[in-house]
Amino acid sequence: MNFTQLHERLRSEIKRSIDRGDLTGTSLAARTGLQPSHISNFLHKKRNLSSSALDRVLEALSMDVDHLIPSREPSHSRGAPGFSDGPVNHVPLVSPTVAANSPLITPSLTLESIEITGMRLEDLRPGLSHVRRNWQRFVALRLSADQALPMSPILRPQSIVIVDRHYISLTPHDPHQPTIYGVTLNGSVVFRYLTLDPRCLILRPHVLKYPVELLEIGDGRSPYQFIVGRVAICISQL
Questions:
Q1: 205: preceding bond cis by omega (within 30 degrees)
Q2: CB 169 within 8 A of CB 181
Q3: Which of 64, 67, 85, 190 has its CA at 20 to 30 Å from residue 123's CA atom?
C-alpha cells in the first residue's frame, strides 16, 4: 500500500463513521487539534495530511496503520470456529475485572483455558491503539444472563465470548454488520453496540426493551479507556 492509498482508506473510514453518526468533522478536528477546514479539505480530497497530522488523526480514532491495510483474514474465520484440523489457540478465561484492567494474563488470573481450533486468531485485523500495544490481545469471558440478554439472541447466557482487547476502534470490523463491544460500566463489563458522542459513549442494546445507556466520559479522559475490546467470537456451547 502506498501513501495515496493509505489516505484514501482513511478518508473512507472517516466518512463511514460520519454517515453512521458516530463522528463529525468538527468533533474530529477538536480531538486532533487540527482546524475544521483542514479536516474538510482532507475529506474532500483537496489536500492530504502531513505525517504528523496523520498520526494525530489515527490516535484520535484509536486506529493504527494496520487497521487500514486490507485484511488477510481467512474467510472461514468470520463464522463460528471450526473443529477440524488446523491451528490451535489457547485463550485464557478470566473475570470481567481482569479482562478490563490486566494487560498481561498470568496463570494466577486464569480461570481456565479455552481452546479454539481451526483458525488463527492472530489473523483477525486489530484496531490497535498505541495504549494497548503491550496488552495480551485475546481473553475469554463466560457471560451471565445480565450480560447476555440485552444482546439476545446474538449473545446467550453461559456462552463464552472471545474479546479482542486490541480492537478498541469504533470503526466497524466488518462494515456490513454491527460490532459488539465489551465496555466497563458500574464495576463490571457489559456488551453493547457503541456510538461516540462528544461527551459520552452511547451504549445500545440489541433487544429494544432494554434501555439505551449513556456513559459520561469526563474531562481529561478518553472514551477508549472504557472499551474492553471487540467481541471476535461467541461460542454458545463447548
A1: no
A2: no
A3: 190
Can you spell out the DSSP letters for 99-135?
HHH-SS--GGG-SEEEEEESS-GGGSPP---GGGTTS
- Please state, in angstroms and rounded to a whole number, the distance separating the CA atoms of residues 231 and 82: 17
Question: Alpha-carbon distance 205 to 63, whole Å?
Answer: 24
pLDDT recorded at residue 133: 77
* 124 vs 166, higher pLDDT: 166
- CB-based contact 92:139 (threshold 8 Å): yes
Distance CA 121, CA 88 (A): 9
Distance in angstroms (rounded) separating the CA atoms of residues 117 and 98: 24
The residue count of the chain comes to 238
Beta bridge partners of 216: 200
Q: Of all helices (H) and strands (E), which one includes residue 186? A: none
Torsion over CA of 158, 232, 96 and 61, rounded to 10 degrees? -150
Helix (H, G, I), strand (E, B) or coil at 208: coil
Reading phi first (left if > 0) and then psi (alpha if -120 to 50, else beta), residue 39 is in: alpha
Is pLDDT larger for residue 1 or for residue 60?
60
Separate counts of helices (H) and strands (E) for the chain: 7, 9
Rg of the chain (C-alpha set): 18
Q: What percent of the chain has pLDDT over 70?
A: 81
The strand pair at 181-185 and 227-235 is best described as antiparallel
